[in-house]
Amino acid sequence: MARGLVIAAPRSGSGKTLVTLGLLAALRRAGHVVAPAKTGPDYIDPSFLGRAAGREAINLDPWAMSPSQIQALAAQQAVGAELLLVEGVMGLFDGAADGAGSTGDLAAALRLPVVLVVDAERQSQSVAPLVAGFARWREDVRVAGVILNRVATARHERMLTTALRATSIPLLGAVPRRTELALPERHLGLVMPGEIAAFDSFLDDAAEAMGDFVDLRALASIAAPVAESHALPLALPPLGQRIAVARDAACAFLYPHLLDGWRAAGAELSFFSPLADESPRPVADAVFLPGGYPELHGATLAAAGRFRSGLVAARDRGALIYGECGGFMALGEALVDKDGNSHAMAGLLPMVTRIDRPKRVLGYRRLVHESPLPWPTGLNGHEFHYSSAKQTGLPPLFEALDAEGIRQVPMGAMLGRVMGSYAHVIAAA
């Protein structure tokens, strides 16, 4: 039976992604089979975790998913692995606007212990009450170990170590400050690992740091068994029987649990690259355009004639065409990039999207629809983008509420069996 741990932190920016990547890579290099997962609606971190573990990462979302779905997905992910390592999101007890969906909620749902990554920069003895407070905050969340990050000197480490003895929580490691262990970022988060030329070298350095300064054996010893689940994870029904899925740097944001659920339901999946000017298979009765970074590839998409004609052909034969966020942008008439340049898109929805006037929109969404989507009327999703869409005369795809139940502007657009919105759908409500 696989065992599991949740890697969390008191706040964002503490280094938990670096620590998780380094632990995954170090354990893998030591011959262990590790299964990675990410808390919440993140597309970018899972791509890094998967590269480090040599095994695809999944999302476990305690706000959008039911506890039974989370447990079933975690059990499924842990099959064949020795250790399930789940990276948290933000601070341990930070959730959505309604207070739900935190890393602590996930740890409680899975009954897995937490390793707290604490940024030790600019503090010494105060680390003890910080750790003690997090450890005592919820009875159903067990902080079972601490990893100190950005430790300045040997003297600094001694002060921190001495202070932590009063908490009785094991110190698993103290990682020194290393400015070279950093990853490039852009507007939606980290730059994707496939775009970082020296990513493998970065992983080697991170693995070496964790192997040198963290007691990997002690870390593994505090892991708890991942509860078995014989139930299949509840999945949204497939968009069609033969689904063509866009997949490349412009359409990279996919939830693995959706595709796995569609396959389990008997759907046949094929993949194509808009950036390589590939078109969906002519036998596809559904086309899925996931989110990603079309705004970085406007000129390439504008020149992709086969891609656009393939979408038009799919529409004309009655296939369902569904785009999320970046995929929704690609279905419009034009995309205006950050420099103000307009690029022709597929032209299946009469709208223009633009990112030259960036405004961040972020948050969970409860969605209601009456559309050709073969999904339940109520859905849970997430929205995160800097672009905006302007269209007139089309019915929206979704009515939406935020996590606090506050009504939002209706989302997306629908024209026959072509539809999309900025929402990334995660699960049935």
Automatic annotation (TrEMBL):
The keyword Ligase applies. GO terms for molecular function: ATP binding; cobyrinic acid a,c-diamide synthase activity; hydrogenobyrinic acid a,c-diamide synthase (glutamine-hydrolysing) activity. Its EC number is 6.3.5.9. Keywords: ATP-binding, Cobalamin biosynthesis, Glutamine amidotransferase, Ligase, Magnesium, Nucleotide-binding. Pathway: Cofactor biosynthesis; adenosylcobalamin biosynthesis; cob(II)yrinate a,c-diamide from precorrin-2 (aerobic route): step 9/10. Residues 5-188 form the CobQ/CobB/MinD/ParA nucleotide binding domain. It comes from the Bacteria. Residues 242-427 form the CobB/CobQ-like glutamine amidotransferase domain. The record marks 424 as: Increases nucleophilicity of active site Cys. CDD domains: CobB_N. The active site is at 325 (nucleophile). Pfam families: CbiA, GATase_3. Its cofactor is Mg(2+). It is an enzyme of class 6 (ligase). GO terms for biological process: cobalamin biosynthetic process. SUPFAM superfamilies: Class I glutamine amidotransferase-like (SSF52317), P-loop containing nucleoside triphosphate hydrolases (SSF52540). It catalyses: hydrogenobyrinate + 2 L-glutamine + 2 ATP + 2 H2O = hydrogenobyrinate a,c-diamide + 2 L-glutamate + 2 ADP + 2 phosphate + 2 H(+). Belongs to the CobB/CbiA family. Belongs to the CobB/CobQ family. CobQ subfamily. Catalyzes the ATP-dependent amidation of the two carboxylate groups at positions a and c of hydrogenobyrinate, using either L-glutamine or ammonia as the nitrogen source. HAMAP family: CobB_CbiA (MF_00027). Comprises of two domains. The C-terminal domain contains the binding site for glutamine and catalyzes the hydrolysis of this substrate to glutamate and ammonia. The N-terminal domain is anticipated to bind ATP and hydrogenobyrinate and catalyzes the ultimate synthesis of the diamide product. The ammonia produced via the glutaminase domain is probably translocated to the adjacent domain via a molecular tunnel, where it reacts with an activated intermediate. The a and c carboxylates of hydrogenobyrinate are activated for nucleophilic attack via formation of a phosphorylated intermediate by ATP. CobB catalyzes first the amidation of the c-carboxylate, and then that of the a-carboxylate. This is Hydrogenobyrinate a,c-diamide synthase. It comes from Devosia equisanguinis. The lineage of its organism: Bacteria, Pseudomonadati, Pseudomonadota, Alphaproteobacteria, Hyphomicrobiales.
